[in-house]
Design a protein that fits this description.
Blueprint: E1 2-6, H1 10-21, E2 25-29, H2 33-36, E3 46-48, H3 55-60, E4 68-71, H4 76-89, E5 94-99, H5 102-110, E6 114-117, H6 118-131, E7 136-141, E8 146-152, E9 171-178, E10 181-183, E11 196-202, H7 206-213
Parallel strand pairs: 1-2, 1-4, 2-3, 4-5, 5-6
Antiparallel strand pairs: 7-8, 8-11, 9-10, 9-11
């Protein structure tokens, strides 16, 4: 996959290194030499000096043949402008913009742009760790509205079924790891001692979920 990343701050440089190490073709657009240095000597991708919302710079980076575009600069305005150019003018299939202001993130999501608000995600992650320490959030989606949490099945749920932990539109068991092997359960799957569960839960339903688990009663 060919990916263009606009911005080489801490987030942009890390994304660039991760994708490059996975074997993807990565082109970074950045004008600050100090930021470019974050990529390190072992970076396998290419770097183009310039502004990520300059059409000529984007064309020099090969945006007309790229599969994905990531706007990860320090400026919300620059990220949105470059993301909209990539999506609406060059029709890049996958465009993601990093935004600090969660209010803007919601607005641009409504316009069809994929956005990541690190402010919202970080705040939600901290809230999870503080208020639901019994659970282990593995990954969050969107701006933290949905999380996948991991936990060992509580003793009082051994012998119960997946349907007993399911709240339609709020929580669902997505996998069970048993004796080192993971599988996708059905509603009638019975929990066994030692099962490791991964459950998708709406952030707004986390309190109800911990109560369902019986963990809320222990606080």
């Amino acid at each position: 996959m060919k990916v263009i990343i606009m911005g080489c701050g801490r987030v942009g440089s890390q994304i660039a290194r991760l994708l490059s190490d996975e074997g993807h073709e990565v082109i970074v657009i950045e004008q600050d030499p100090i930021a470019i240095a974050r990529l390190g000597m072992n970076f396998k991708g290419a770097v183009i000096r310039g502004l990520g919302f300059d059409k000529q710079v984007l064309m020099d980076a090969g945006i007309e043949q790229t599969d994905a575009f990531v706007a990860a600069s320090q400026s919300d305005n620059a990220n949105i402008i470059s993301a909209r150019i990539a999506r609406n003018i060059f029709h890049v299939p996958r465009v993601v913009a990093r935004l600090y202001d969660p209010r803007r993130a919601e607005i641009y999501r409504r316009l069809g742009l994929m956005t990541i608000s690190t402010t919202t995600w970080g705040a939600e992650r901290i809230r999870e760790l503080i208020t639901h320490a019994e659970l282990d959030p593995v990954i969050s989606f969107g701006s933290g509205e949905v999380s996948v949490v991991g936990l060992e099945v509580p003793p009082h749920l051994v012998g119960r079924m997946v349907r007993d932990l399911t709240m339609v539109g709020e929580s669902m068991v997505v996998s069970i790891t048993r004796e080192g092997k993971a599988f996708l359960p059905v509603t009638g799957t019975e929990f066994r001692e030692g099962d490791i569960l991964h459950v998708a839960v709406m952030a707004s339903s986390m309190d109800r979920f911990t109560t369902l688990l019986g963990l809320g009663e222990e606080r």
